[in-house]
């Protein structure tokens, strides 16, 4: 098996591979533009299983468990456009700058990814051209179109996190992630904290940075859009009932935020 991938970058994905970009509700009228960088865990057929056992490919290292169900339901409830990425973050992480070492990780949460070791520069470039670029090009196009049409746009980047990391249990049910936006995250934090029984992370379990993130810095901050990341703990959204419950809760909160923002304008 040729783990290093093809020289001709157009050959990384063939007719039997799924397209990298998934979209729901492209004509959605909500100001919220939803993105999901770690929505899927597909691997291009030419890359086989990256040398990783199947049991590892269903873990959080391969994708954001549960977020696809939440993102789909939230898109429907809010009438919001969702742009999502179907390939595993182990192939190329669509929320990392391509120059970062973690863009194509050789080790993820102590699991070695043999198919990512000693990767030739053109093989890495092929993954970028086949998966990373089309996804981010599509987000940029949609934002361009919305700005041109004067459609209010607030970027919400949806993620999920593992309940235990490096042996330490994480107490938060949900966290907001942000860097430079001072408008949306405080509103979201206030409403989440008003929900009974929720432990809410303020830039926990992660904070956004230019070095460790791509979608929010590039599509949110550089474009001057209001933005936030959301991280939901995976054990809460493992099944469809949990996904629906969290989508309902977030839809109520985002509707309230929309009302507040419109009143402020
Ligand atoms: Zn994620």
What this model shows, in words?
The structure is a single chain. With 265 residues, the chain is of the alpha/beta class. The chain is built from six helices and eleven strands. The strands form three sheets. Strands 1-3-2-6-11-9-10 form a seven-stranded mixed β-sheet, with helices on both faces. The longest helix has 28 residues. It binds zinc ion. Zinc ion (ZN) binds next to loops.
Question: What order do the helices and strands come in, and which of them pair?
Answer:
Elements: E1 21-24, E2 32-36, H1 54-57, H2 67-78, E3 82-85, E4 107-108, E5 111-112, H3 121-148, E6 154-161, E7 164-165, E8 168-169, E9 174-177, H4 184-193, E10 200-202, H5 215-221, E11 226-233, H6 240-264
Parallel strand pairs: 2-3, 2-6, 6-11, 9-10
Antiparallel strand pairs: 1-3, 4-5, 7-8, 9-11
Bound molecules: zinc ion.
Summarize the structure.
This protein is α/β, with parallel strands linked by helices and 265 residues long. The protein is built from six helices and eleven strands.
Radius of gyration: 18 Å
Kindly, what is the distance between the CA atoms of the first and last residues, rounded to a whole number of angstroms?
57 Å
What is the global morphology?
A: globular
Widest β-sheet, arrangement of strands: 1-3-2-6-11-9-10
How many E-type strands? 11
Instruction: Tell me the fraction of residues in β-strands, as a range.
Output: 15-25%
Structural class assignment: alpha/beta
Ligand inventory? zinc ion
Q: Major β-sheet, in short? A: 7 strands, mixed
* Count of DSSP H/I helices: 6
Question: Would you list the SSEs in sequence order as H and E?
Answer: EEHHEEEHEEEEHEHEH
By oligomeric state, this entry counts as single chain
Low-confidence stretches: 1-9
Mean pLDDT: 94
Helix content: 25-40%
């Amino acid at each position: 098996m040729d783990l290093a991938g093809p020289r001709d970058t157009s050959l990384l994905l063939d007719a039997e591979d799924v397209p990298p970009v998934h979209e729901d509700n492209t004509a959605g009228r909500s100001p919220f533009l939803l993105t999901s960088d770690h929505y899927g865990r597909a691997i291009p057929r030419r890359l086989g299983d990256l040398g990783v056992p199947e049991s590892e490919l269903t873990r959080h290292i391969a994708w954001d468990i549960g977020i696809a169900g939440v993102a789909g339901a939230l898109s429907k409830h809010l009438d919001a456009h969702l742009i999502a990425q179907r390939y595993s973050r182990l192939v190329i992480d669509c929320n990392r700058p391509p120059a970062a070492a973690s863009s194509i990780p050789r080790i993820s949460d102590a699991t070695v990814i043999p198919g990512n070791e000693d990767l030739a520069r053109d093989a890495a470039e092929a993954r970028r051209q086949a998966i990373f670029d089309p996804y981010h090009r599509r987000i940029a196009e949609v934002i361009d179109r919305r700005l041109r049409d004067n459609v209010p746009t607030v970027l919400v980047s949806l993620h999920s996190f593992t309940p235990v990391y490096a042996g330490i249990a994480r107490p938060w049910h949900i966290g907001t992630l942000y860097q430079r936006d001072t408008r949306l995250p405080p509103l979201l934090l206030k409403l989440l904290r008003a929900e009974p029984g929720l432990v809410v992370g303020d830039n926990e379990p992660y904070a956004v940075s230019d070095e460790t993130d791509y979608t929010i810095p590039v599509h949110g901050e550089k474009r001057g859009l209001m933005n936030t990341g959301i991280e939901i703990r995976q054990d809460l959204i493992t099944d469809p009932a949990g996904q629906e419950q969290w989508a309902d809760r977030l839809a109520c909160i985002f509707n309230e935020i929309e009302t507040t923002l419109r009143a402020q304008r």
